[in-house]
Amino acid sequence: MRRAFARRAALSVLLLATAALGSGAPAAADDAGVSVASQGSTAVPPAGTGAEPAPGRTSLKETPWVPGKRGKYAFWWDHYRDSNDNDYDDFSFFISYKQVYTQVWSGQYTDGVEVGGYVKDHRKSSYGGMVRWRNGQDDVAQFDTGQVLGHGLVWVGSVRFIHVIPTTVDDDADGIPDDSDGDGIPDGIPGGQNQVQFGTGLDWYHGDYDFGTFRAISDPREGGRWTFQFSHRFYHGPQFYIEPGWLPRTDGTTNWFLRGKYKAFVWLVGDFNQFDFTDIERKQVSLGLEFAY
Ligand SMILES: [Ca+2]
Ligand SMILES: [Ca+2]
Description:
The protein has a single domain (about 1-180, about 185-290), classed as monomeric porin ompg (Porin). Helix content is about 10%, strand content about 50%. It contains two helices and 14 strands, in the order ααββββββββββββββ. The chain has a 14-stranded antiparallel β-barrel. The radius of gyration is 19 Å and the shape is globular. The relative contact order is 0.19. Mean pLDDT is about 75; it is low at about 10-60. Bound molecules: calcium ion (2 copies). The site of one calcium ion has 5 residues, from loops.
């Protein structure tokens, strides 16, 4: 029921956003920073980081790199409500400088820090990575590349190494490890403590700032399961965009998000199933303020 609703909602959002903005967003030639020549290069987000469908990631909210600027900083409030009716509030601070960034966050769900960056070759293809530590959740290292193909297309590949910190599952969030088969041995983390995740896909830059994203991301928790991301950012000048995303999975579940920006105000709403190595579904509302410098 919830899945069906989420799917309908996501489709409605996509259709509405496409109808409202897809045709009405003129490519503003004077939007400084990104020329036609630099599309798929300057504007490329750190490759592969957009491949992450989990809501806690910076990249799901924003591109860390601002064309023509040294960087940017942002303050975020994240509110989660999970399928056990638990609420969490987390706060984070993000800052990028040239080709590196860091983010720290703290709150009821987790505390953590992430550091990432990239370099580019003479073809403006990127090679990047990030490391992240989340207290009581996981340690992550990722390497990724974005290869410029021309015609605004960038091929993205990524590999992510994940060390899951909890050793048992607690899907009903009662503080007691679940034992689904009742044999007295708690359920282990699906996929084990150490996991490797692969991602691949394309970004397509067109217009002055608009871009579409496609990703296929393996799910090490369940062999053969993949998550796909279809999203598109519709710009209307540098101060305003809206980006709907639809994330179907090969097991039939669907996640979605809708994010946007108006001047310094940035926001995201979304619904994410099986978040963070549990069967818990999490709805998310995030509000932030961000400033380029
Ligand atoms: Ca439990
Ligand atoms: Ca058991």
